[in-house]
Amino acid sequence: MGRTLYVVDDDPTTLKILPAVLNVHLPDIPVESCSSPAEALRLILAKPSSAVISDIRMPQMDGFELLMSLKAARTEIPLILMSGEADSAIATRAFEAGAFDVFAKPFSAQDLVESVRLALCEYTLTREIQALTQKRRRARQRAPADRVAPPLR
Question: C-alpha distances in angstroms, 57 versus 44, 53, 74, 77, 131?
């Protein structure tokens, strides 16, 4: 499974700077940039991806809509949201909707990189758990009925 990181923002400066910073600190992780959340969603669902960093305020589709669409289709992909406003209500809404982390602009590149590292670790662990769960289900399906332990209560 690929480990592509997506940066989604309608600001061309952010789309230039953030991938450059991430490439310096996370050189083994490919970074893709998208100015359109709808296009980003299409790419994320079509290709293997590991994490998404998205602005909240964008035209046509905001970061919350992207988060909800992503969580409906690929629950294991962590999404980090960025906002130009330092507002606790926005942060609360983001976490309640399932965001991995929330940053108010401007933010420390070091803090963002650390959050991305943690998001990638969470993604990897989630995928490993999913694979082990599937393996266990297949093993139970192949096991004779008399060898399957009764469910715990």
Answer: 19, 13, 22, 20, 35
